[in-house]
Amino acid sequence: MRMVGLCVLAVTLLAYCSLPSTLAQTCQDERAVAYFNDNGFRGRVIISKDAGELSFNASGLQLATGQFSLAIHELSAFVGTSESSCQGIGAVYNPTSAQAGMELGGLSTLPALANQVLSVTTGLNMINPYGIIGRTLVIQSTSDGTATSCATIQHVYATSGSVCPEPDQHNYEVTHVAAFNGDISGRVFLRQASRATTQGTFLTTVYSHLYSTQGRAASTGHQWAIRSGLCTSLGSFVANLSVTADGQVPISAGPSGYAGRHVTSLCLDSQLPTGTTERSLAVYNADSSLLACARVHRVPHRSIRATFTGDTSGYVAISQGSPFTASSLRINLMSNTVSSVGSTINTLPVQSGQGSSAGQVFNPFMSQTNVVGRIGDKLGNATQGQVCDRYSTLRGLNSLAGRSATITYNSQQSSMNLEEQLASGDRVLRARADFSGAVTGTIYLAQVAREDGSRGETLITSSGLTNAAQSMQHNMHVHVNRIGWQNDASACGGQFTAGHYDPHGVARNSTLYSAECGQMYPHRCEVGDTSRKTGQFNLDGSGFVRHDVNLPLDGNYRVIGRSFVIHAPNGGGPRVACANIVPMTARTFQLRFNVSALNGGNIDLADIRNRLQQILNDNGPIQASIQQNYVDAYNTTELGYIRGVVDGAQANRAIDLLAQCQMLGPYTRPDCPSSTSAATLPTAAASLVALLIATTTLLGLIF
How many Å separate Cα 97 from the centre of its chain? Predict the structure, then answer.
């Protein structure tokens, strides 16, 4: 019946109708649960429905002092983004557009909450239409309706009986994400129970926040579906997410507010893939043309750990299943003399185990009572224990990743860095930008590359980044090109580095961009707009830790091979320093050139290879290995190829020597040598460079 209904919507949607059934028809006898863990409330509320009656079993919930009632709000809350667990949950759920006080989510006929089973006759269901799973259960004051404590409503099969399940437990939620960039931006999370319901189906909750970056009017009722393959070559339909009218996705005119945020829940008859299988999420216009598309990746269970050795040994570990689940804080220390240990998470990493460089205790909400980094208070200063915390997160701006942990015992103190725990097949991509001149120091970048092709957030840290004035509040951006030969502020101008790196064109409407891009909406920003995404930077040498959700180190939109540009203090515009972003691991390069244009084709590729190797050896020396050379016929033009591997730490100079200026696309750089100015280059490079440039033969470089 539902599939036929889709066929009626538009003839061009017939592809939906040719699908085998990918939507479960029943999921009625399931239960849901909400776990609370803040403001004096701890425990769970179990929700079930029978014969139109919704039942809330609060017997497993510890209550704070006061009079409270229940309500359901329309959205899920992200963990660790606010001191309040109720931030960003939207209004009371009101799918029928009822008048104030009569919303279905208001549960107005329920008595006050008091460790009991409460029941209400309502039109709400577990899943759509009018589904509550994926929304927020709110404990609110009966006196003024103020939200006191909030928890996401989860399918009972998406939990393990714990607020923060561990990855080795069988009953937990698996989360996928599709990140949209471009004219339509935002993210869509698909959260699926890891085991089937009693009907053999998989309860799936979808949280979307999609918006226009170019002033497109808000719109609703968009069809959307998961399809096989990548967006460049979409394959068959895997699952249609528009199973009911309230399952269709809205798109808002901009990122702020709740207009573009949406929660829907449905049962699929198959699990979303967890390996390297390629899947994409496609969103359609009313005429069934494709509006936007993004690849679907799994959001991995993330874990970090600080390991301590010596008289008191063991670890402090934090893990988190998804952006919607509480983090697990765990301490496990062994000592013959210590029974009580103070423990904190610090703002910065440490150098060589010295706590003096760790900065202050991490306190992103500037709270007097809820300091995120004081984990010892939450663990009762025990040497062994575990607690679930809704304010600690391993995602986004307030992530604990990349920082350090300190333990204090018997008037002693030890600090160690919190290291990422990698799954099998994962690897870490690393890059750096070394500043010299008026600004000195280094910026480091690190990003986890996962076996399934997904990428984690990019960790940005610094070492000794400072200037003579130790000035503050600098904007810093990734710019399109590498810097000029001078390698100082004079090489940072637009004629060298060009503008901000914006491969998705999200800043074309500059007025909207200035109003909408920011730390709350990093996917609305240019890839290169680091300061708007993560905050301004200080050049006082104290260091920083930032997390950028949209700064890839590899792939089509990688920032390696481009440059960081630092602007004047206090948000000023002039460029004061710049540095190239280079890999910290060995990379492969490829030179490609027109053989026929070199002395009429009378050229020895082996000779060019040997001369390139000599250029690298004479300049540093740069450690590189020229591996092979060959000639291909392509469109009647003989192309020569020389490939090699260059040490990552020396990649900056190697690119300058090998590629010169021909790889830089449409931007003209006045420092590019010509056939008559090759002498400005290192002497050993001059003859070969003059030959290549004089015959316009250097066609490209892959790095």
Answer: 34
Phi, psi values for residue 466, rounded to 5°: -155, 170
Question: What pTM did the predictor assign?
Answer: 0.83
Q: Which two tokens stand for residue 8?
A: 């009626």
Query: Is residue 547 a contact partner of residue 402, using CB atoms and an 8 Å limit?
Result: yes
- Sketch the domain layout of the chain as residue ranges: 2-25+172-299, 32-158, 302-420, 427-583, 587-702
Burial 169-188 (b: 16+ CB within 10 A, else e): eeebbbbbbbbbbbbbbbbb
Both tokens assigned to 136: 């927020």
Task: Examine domains 32-158 and 427-583 and report if their fold is the same.
Answer: yes
Confidence class of residue 83 from pLDDT cuts 50, 70 and 90?
Answer: confident
What is the number of H-type helices and E-type strands within the chain?
Answer: 9, 38
CB atoms within 10 A of CB 437: 17
pLDDT digits (tens, 9 = 90+) for 286-301: 888 999 999 999 898 8
Q: Positive or negative CA dihedral for 580, 581, 582, 587?
A: negative
Question: Is 2-25+172-299 in CATH node 2.40.50?
Answer: no
Percentage helix, strand, coil for the chain under 3-state DSSP, each rounded to 5: 15, 40, 45
Q: Rounded CA gap, 593 and 698, in Å?
A: 5
Q: Using 50, 70 and 90 to split pLDDT, how confident is the model at 697?
A: very low
Ranges of H-type helices in 288-385: 375-378
Fold of the domain built from segment(s) 32-158? Immunoglobulin-like (2.60.40)
